[in-house]
Design a protein that fits this description.
Blueprint: H1 3-10, E1 21-22, H2 24-31, H3 35-38, E2 42-45, H4 54-61, E3 70-74, E4 108-112, H5 125-132, E5 138-140, H6 150-158, E6 161-164, H7 171-180, E7 184-190, H8 200-204, E8 209-221, E9 232-234, E10 240-251, E11 282-283, E12 297-300, E13 313-319, E14 333-334, E15 337-338, E16 342-347
Parallel strand pairs: 2-3, 2-6, 6-7, 11-12
Antiparallel strand pairs: 1-8, 3-4, 4-5, 7-10, 8-10, 9-10, 12-16, 13-16, 14-15
Bound molecules: S-adenosylmethionine.
Length: 350
């Protein structure tokens, strides 16, 4: 199988990353850029076990600081429970207010509309622990907590911002639901998703963009995760970890990054920038090599997306397989050699 075919097979079926759990630090490091946009909002974390997810913990801890209106976290019956160590200082007992243990095979929902403490300040861990064991705060869902289920879509319709790391295999499903209901979102995903036919048109039209962190991310993984030679380790506490080199945040929340100009220093030279064999445009190997003075179409690496400013460059399409969607214009080749997928851009304001 060629590299591209292998990628294709893996495209929507990366089940192995479905149980990768986000650290508190990853979430805090990104959300610090969006604090104004969270003010007064109802937040939904819909792939998030209230007892274990750091998304849930982050929004509980920062509920008063971000001045949230509401927090709803729903979890999925198939999630691995009690295998992941989260970042909380106070260990949580996995029991509902009724005394029933929190078990695998059930969906749960946490709903919060206020938290004691000072507005503008973080909530302490003891208060969070008390909240989670308070009667009626965490309830069993009727169904299995699939975010596509009727009861979970109802929560989605009621929220302003959905913020989570969904199973990668269902990334497109969640994205499509959020678009359908016209919601704001901030989602962790794999950079490959940028060129998917369901997502790329939104990137191209400047209706979705990537956030700040774009690259390496470490995730806690369940105890039964198979060891491997790369991007896997076990910490002193025995917690297993994996990392992803091409992780990203995908969002439609306005951020300053979108308006920063990419500073470029190179000039066009036909010997350095070969034309594609099968398309009128030049290949640019690295983002830093984008020539300041080329007026035609340029094929640039996918990492360009991290710097995209729609007033500086226009996204024309992508060059992936040449058939993925109406904007996938050709399979990139230079001098007979196939290249990894490219984003096609053109300078604005010539
Ligand atoms: C990549 S993990 C991330 C968990 C958590 N959001 C975090 O960032 O730590 C995705 C989670 O979604 C759960 N999940 C799987 N299928 C789901 C579905 N159809 N609906 C909701 N959650 C699902 C998985 O069991 C897992 O707990």
């Amino acid at each position: 199988m060629s590299g591209n075919s292998i990628l294709n097979c893996a495209k929507y079926s990366s089940k192995n990353t479905d149980e990768w759990y986000t650290t508190y630090e990853t979430i805090a490091e990104e959300i610090k850029y969006y604090t104004k946009q969270f003010f007064g909002k109802a937040v939904l974390c819909n792939c998030d076990d209230p007892f274990e997810s750091n998304f849930c913990y982050y929004f509980l801890k920062n509920f008063n600081k971000l001045r949230l209106k509401k927090l709803v976290c729903t979890s999925y019956a198939g999630s691995k429970i009690d295998q992941i160590k989260n970042d909380r200082q106070v260990p949580l007992k996995m029991f509902l207010n009724t005394g029933e243990p929190v078990t695998v095979g059930r969906g749960y929902v946490l709903t919060i509309t206020e938290i004691p403490g000072r507005i503008g300040k973080e909530v302490d861990d003891l208060t969070i622990k008390k909240i989670l064991s308070k009667k009626g705060v965490v309830k069993k869902l009727i169904g299995n907590g699939d975010f596509r289920s009727e009861e979970c879509v109802k929560y989605l319709k009621e929220c302003d911002i959905c913020c989570t790391n969904p199973p990668f295999s269902l990334f497109v499903d969640l994205f499509s639901l959020l678009v359908k209901y016209n919601k704001l979102y901030l989602l962790i995903g794999n950079q490959n998703a940028i060129t998917y036919k369901e997502i790329f048109p939104y990137i191209k039209e400047n209706k979705a963009w990537v956030g700040y962190k774009f690259g390496d991310m470490a995730f806690r993984v369940p105890a039964d995760t198979e060891p491997r030679n790369t991007r896997f380790w076990v910490d002193e506490a025995g917690q297993k970890w994996r990392s992803l080199g091409n992780a990203m945040w995908l969002t439609n929340i306005d951020i300053k990054r979108k308006y920063q100009k990419l500073e470029l220093t190179k000039y066009y030279n036909p010997e350095v920038y070969p034309k594609f064999d099968n398309f009128e445009g030049i290949n640019v190997k690295k983002v830093a090599d984008i020539p300041v003075d080329y007026d035609g179409i340029m094929g640039v690496p996918i990492t360009y997306i991290k710097y995209h400013n729609s007033s500086q460059f226009e996204i024309i399409g992508e060059a992936n397989h040449g058939s993925d969607n109406e904007f996938d214009l050709f399979k990139p080749k230079v001098n007979g050699r196939e290249l990894f997928k490219r984003i096609l851009i053109r300078r604005k304001g010539k």
